[in-house]
């Protein structure tokens, strides 16, 4: 598990697949009253590489500010970040060979032949970033946004930052929830 988290640390949400974004929320909450935030201690110590952690925190700060929030020592919500990495394998089978029909006007038949099947395996990691808003008064999650994407292990720092910023921006397109 630590190795998977380390892979996420290398290139959180950078990759070649499309970004999948979803969200959930407590429909009893009046989101218009939430104006201040702070990060949980756990978020500031995510078990990923320091540079990627800083990129994620900065991207979330930017989006919280864009949504009208301000940082506070006495916040309305705590922002709790989590990352998850899932190892996946995809198999592709390709069959090739010879064989077919033969005959003439009087006879028909099937001619045997040979074929081979080659199976190729592709291993990849899907990384997911969770952004939870936890009510300071009830200590319950009031909103959660998440984004998942195949991780590009060869992404350079600029590409990682671009992808992280894009993923976080897409997560926050679902905030505030439309009731």
Protein described:
With 179 residues, the chain is of the alpha/beta class. The chain has a single domain (2-174), classed as Double Stranded RNA Binding Domain (2-Layer Sandwich). 23% of the residues lie in helices and 40% in strands. It is built from three helices and eight strands. The strands form two sheets. The chain has a six-stranded mixed beta sheet with strand order 1-8-7-4-2-3, with helices on both faces.
In short:
This protein is α/β, with parallel strands linked by helices and about 180 residues long. The chain has helices at about 1-10, 50-65, 155-170; strands spanning about 20-25, 35-40, 70, 75-95, 100-105, 110, 115-135, 140-150. The strands form two sheets. The protein has a six-stranded mixed beta sheet with strand order 1-8-7-4-2-3, sandwiched between helices. Strands 5-6 form a two-stranded antiparallel ribbon.
Give the class from helix and strand content and strand pairing.
Answer: alpha/beta
Unreliable segments (pLDDT under 50, ≥5 consecutive)? 1-16
Shape annotation: elongated
**Overall mean confidence score, pLDDT:** 86
The count of strands amounts to 8
Distance N to C terminus: 37 Å
Q: How many H/I helices?
A: 3
What is the element layout, followed by pairings?
Layout: H1 2-11, E1 20-25, E2 36-39, H2 50-66, E3 70-71, E4 77-97, E5 100-103, E6 108-111, E7 115-135, E8 141-150, H3 157-171
Parallel strand pairs: 2-3, 2-4
Antiparallel strand pairs: 1-8, 4-7, 5-6, 7-8
Helix pairs in contact: 2-3
């Amino acid at each position: 598990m630590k190795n998977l988290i380390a892979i996420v640390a290398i290139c959180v949400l950078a990759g070649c697949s499309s970004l999948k974004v979803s969200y959930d929320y407590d429909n009893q909450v009046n989101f218009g009253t939430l104006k201040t935030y702070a990060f949980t201690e756990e978020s500031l110590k995510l078990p990923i590489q320091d540079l990627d952690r800083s990129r994620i925190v900065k991207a979330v700060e930017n989006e919280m500010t864009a949504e009208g929030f301000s940082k506070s020592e006495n916040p309305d919500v705590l922002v709790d970040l989590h990352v998850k990495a899932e190892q996946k394998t995809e198999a592709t089978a390709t069959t090739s060979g010879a064989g077919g029909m033969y005959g003439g006007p009087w006879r028909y038949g099937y001619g045997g032949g040979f074929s081979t099947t080659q199976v190729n395996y592709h291993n990849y990691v899907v990384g997911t970033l969770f952004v939870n808003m936890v009510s300071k008064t009830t200590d319950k999650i009031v909103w959660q946004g998440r984004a998942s994407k195949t991780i590009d292990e060869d992404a350079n720092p600029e590409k990682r930052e671009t992808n992280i910023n894009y993923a976080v921006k897409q997560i926050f397109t679902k905030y505030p929830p439309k009731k």
